[in-house]
Amino acid sequence: MINFLDLKAINDTFEPELSLAIKRVLDSGWYLLGNETKAFEQEYAAFIGAKHCIGVANGLDALRLILKAFIIKGDMNVGDEIIVPANTYIATILAITDNRLKPVLIEPDLTTYNINPFNIEEKITKRTKGIMIVHLYGQNAMHPEINRLVEKYKLKLIEDNAQAAGAIYNEELIYNNTIYQKSNSEKSKNKRNMLFNNSISNSIQCSKQKKTGSLGSAAGHSFYPGKNIGCLGDGGAVTSDDDELAQLIRVLANYGSNKKYQNEYQGLNSRLDELQAAILRVKLPLLNTYNQQRFIIAKFYCENIKNPEIILPQDNNSSLFTFNSSLSHVWHLFVIRHPDRDRLQRYLYENDIQTLIHYPVPPHKQKAFKEWNNLSYPVTEQIHSEVLSLPISPVMEKSEAIRVVEVLNNFK
Ligand SMILES: Cc1ncc(COP(=O)(O)O)c(C=O)c1O
User: How far is the CA of 60 from the centre of ligand 1 (A)?
Assistant: First the structure.
């Protein structure tokens, strides 16, 4: 069976460093709010290109805490509206409703599956206070139109970067994909003999190139085990350049307390622990390399899957594979569409290929949001009925990718 994702195999590539990091924490006798978390926060902030990083318990909490902090600061009030894609994992929406803010669902672009920037303005009202974009499946969702709206209506831009650690937003590429300069990439440090070893020789550096997670007022990150950088358990982070907001989130994540037993706010207990931080510190230096391995598999799939009924991932300016290291998509998931998705999934399973669906039921059709069940978001619903995620990971063997392509091309 070709597994959808072999987490054990991925984590094995980090041995013995992972075991040593775990032992280091065990031996330290210090398990929360210590040096490992502090060091990881600095390293991840530098990686993302943000001034601050606050380690929290998971990605949902990261988003909840950002909105909670905006409410406490007075930038948002209960009942205010937050623009959000209708096509997302439910956590994005839960972060909004949990703060008693109102999600305003926006239909996605059928080529990227991300929020359609040109559907937003008509939904902006006097109560709109923020836009929460989601870099779904690992693909940058930012667009100059979103920046224009944020500035015009003085909105907070919040990024859900749970699926896109390491992705790049390149404004110039989106305006005009011919503006670029080449430079040498950092050498692959990966000790594993990487699969498609025709590796990456050039990277792109543009003046307007930034990592997702550094584009707005604040961003939420998830280190759920299956993410491009994952813990051995739950973990998350907030990144932000805003000193006041970051400090408030740090306090809110620790019971609303800045000083032991002095509680300024009604906070949460949501902290990244020392063990998970130490594990993430082992993994972070290889994140770009592992993302490039995902890229190579994605490119191989896109170049070789020839079944006319299968719709492959795309973007708006066909630059997904133009520039090797400039990853506007970090391929957390490789998602295809097919009109007869369920039959295709069964066929793949019968041929020993495991696939998953991200996601089978959109948020507005979930029982948790009964009040929206009768609403219609046709593009979102079409996506949910047609998408299928193929195996992709940094440890996937070339023979496995070839097999997936072969089986897909034979599907009638
Ligand atoms: C888009 C998106 N947002 C938020 C989350 C929440 O992250 P977590 O599972 O760490 O709470 C996830 C992941 O599961 C996600 O995929």
Answer: 6
Each residue's pLDDT tens digit, 342-388: 999 999 999 999 999 999 999 999 999 999 999 999 999 999 999 99
Ligand 1 pocket mutation, candidates 67, 82, 224, 232, criterion most atoms within 8 A of CB: 224
CATH class of the 287-409 domain in this structure: alpha beta
Query: Is there a contact between 397 and 346 (Cβ–Cβ < 8 Å)?
Result: no
Q: Whose CA is nearest to atom 8 of ligand 1?
A: 59
Strand 218-222 and strand 156-160: the pairing is parallel
With a CB cutoff of 8 Å and minimum separation 6, the contacts of 387 are: 113, 335, 336, 337, 341, 357, 358, 359
| DSSP conformation class of 353 | B
Tokens of 219: 């961003």
Nearest CA, atom 7, ligand 1: 59
Cα–Cα separations (whole angstroms), residue 251 to 17, 176, 267: 32, 42, 7
Within 6 A (CB) of ligand 1 lie 58-60, 88-89, 91-92, 134, 160, 162-163, 222, 224, 234, 236
Task: State pLDDT tens for residues 140-189.
Answer: 999 999 999 999 999 999 999 999 999 999 876 655 443 322 233 333 33
Predicted confidence (pLDDT) per residue in 311-320, tens digit: 999 876 656 7
The answer to whether 154 and 131 have CB atoms below 8 angstroms apart is no
Q: Residues 218-256: pLDDT tens digits?
A: 999 999 999 999 999 999 999 999 999 999 999 999 999
CATH for 7-286 (3.30.1370.10, 3.40.50.740, 3.40.50.850, 3.40.640.10): 3.40.640.10
290 CA from centroid of ligand 1 (Å): 20
pLDDT in tens, 192-220: 334 444 333 333 444 568 999 999 999 99
| pTM to 2 decimal places | 0.92
Q: State in Å: Cα 388 to ligand 1 middle.
A: 18
89 CA from centroid of ligand 1 (Å): 7
Q: Cα(69)–Cα(268) distance, rounded to whole angstroms?
A: 12
Hey, where are the domains in the chain?
A: 7-286, 287-409
